[in-house]
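Run log, item B.
One chain of 692 residues. Sequence copied directly from the ordering sheet:
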Amino acid sequence: MKHRLSVAVETPRHSAVGGLLDYTSDTSEQPLAPGTLIRVPLGRREVPGVVWDPAPSSAAPETELRDVASVLDAMPVLDADWRALVDFAAAYYQRSVGELALSVLPPELRKLDNTRLARRVKRLLASGLATGLATGLAACAAVDSPAAPPGAPVLNAEQTAALQAIAQAKQPVLLHGVTGSGKTEVYLHAAQDALQRGQQALVLVPEINLTPQLEARFAERFPGRLLVSLHSGLTPAQRLRHWLLAHLGLADLVLGTRLAVFAPLPRLGLIVVDEEHDPSFKQQEGARYSARDLAVWRAHRQRVPVLLGSATPSLETWQRVQQGRYQRLALAERIGGGAMPQVRLVDMGQLPQTPEGRERVLAPALLTALQERLDRGEQSLLLLNRRGYAPVLHCSACGWKSGCPHCSAWRVFHKLDRTLRCHHCGLSERVPRACPDCGNLDISPMGRGTEKLQEQLATLLPQARIGRIDADSTRGVGMLEQQLQAVHAGDVDVLVGTQMVAKGHDFRRVTLVAAVNPDTALFSSDFRAPERLFALLMQAAGRAGRDAEQAARSEMWVQTWHPRHPIYAALRAHDYAAFAAAQLEERRGAGLPPFAALALVRADARTAEVAAAFLHEAATLARDLEGVTVYPVVPPHVAKVADVERMQMLLESPSRTVLQAMLAHWLPQLDELRGHHKGLLRWAVDVDPLVI
């Protein structure tokens, strides 16, 4: 007997086959269960798919439908909660169900046939890790885990109160704790409570570089529990193995980056989002989802606690606290009673002029402070959020600059390998011996990146051991872990880094943090720039004085040309609430998030004219729809990437519901419109964009 199935396959929303597709199956007397992984023919290819819930999406007779090619039933089906999460994310972020569902599965899983998949599952089950799965939830709950494992620090009054409130919470919880206040310890105890109930805990971190130390903390605390990580830094085989362990219910603890929010967890009992304010939780390519927001939605559907932790919450989260939609739990004191670092502002405009042609690296007072730390055997951290040696090479004779021929951006000078690299398209070339335009031999770097700062510090502090952590210095496998270990072991006196080292790390010997050039974000056209800068500086300041014995002499130095800017006033007082109140008032007046809902439509084409024409016609179709403001078509900050021209158009509405309804009605028209514009490569919509 043949059964008709609705199947999600990896096709984009704007394609002719962007919805669920109909197939038939005669593999058994009963139809295949929703959530079953299968392989189906699509055109001349055979592609993976997932059996989905709704009724068939077409009226085509079964005789015209193609049969399922094979069934991968060696593992449990992807359950209703997982499918509901994908359904919601696809609808909210305007993607196809199949595009999202298949993109969040391990790539290796989609390559396996049922025999090889069965072999992998059998090995996992036979490895001795299957106790919980084989005997059911009762066996999981029977595991005797003490409330306070040996070696666990005693919670202070604030932590104890927070943990009790989390256990009773009926809404999302914001754990608002200053840096060094012991938020991770609260996470560990909350996870312990979930494990005692026989449940799994999911912990999300914004970046891969934060997973090793957090994974080490959890592994040390729960030595008898299976812990897995999920992030893009794993090999395909590792990612598949960890995903299967989570899906089979064998893993008790799952740590990962934004992709881990889609991990199927049959015993889910807790979700933690660490550093919830971090923009890395928003996927910027493909399906542009927010893992933080999906974590909140998933927790609500599955009726499990969700814990959002940060010293500098996002303004959206803070506003939901003010509205009473989220519960705020405060950790106002550092562990051990240590003080927050004193913030010192260095007015660069008041410093004496340097000899002509010489660049001032550090203020004399800051250099003295670094030397004092060096003499005492303490560590310092210098924050410069720009990698490479210099942002651009420049010819003083004709004005030539090292632009990228394929992008509307500068190629960054990397001195170590003498290359010019575009950080957008990846083009890398050797530095020319002379100016390509006029032949002048005198071409020189302009500006400063972490590589140059490291070199200059080696000259200014010749006896110091200078380390650098950025995307370039940690490119190799295991390099980040090695460099972090060197810092923790005391083998580095002064650490230079980008935002990679400004959050989440527990550097016990650091007593001085300095922001070298933070002013570039003060006057950005991006309305979120002040929020990001304040969070970055607050997080960076929190790396200093984490050892209570050294906290009293810990400092945060900021070299600025605008010392009277309100951001720096709030930073000096460590007053997030005042900063947030001022920013929210500005956004309320301007009608910006969280007081409005935004969507950004971008078009890519070989010429800017084609992309703009598509968006102009799309805007015409949207003007008849009420409740949404359509802004003019403009190029983004980087208008060309890899010879592809980009244009964008912003949509705004005071109501998220109205905006979603408008998009649902409008975007299918754009699918049809695409065929009228030859040369249009693609278009996409970004709901709740972080950058406009």
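Observations after the first pass:
- The chain has four domains: 3-103, 116-336, 338-387+449-586, 597-687.
- The first helix runs from residue 80 to 92.
Flagged for discussion on Thursday.
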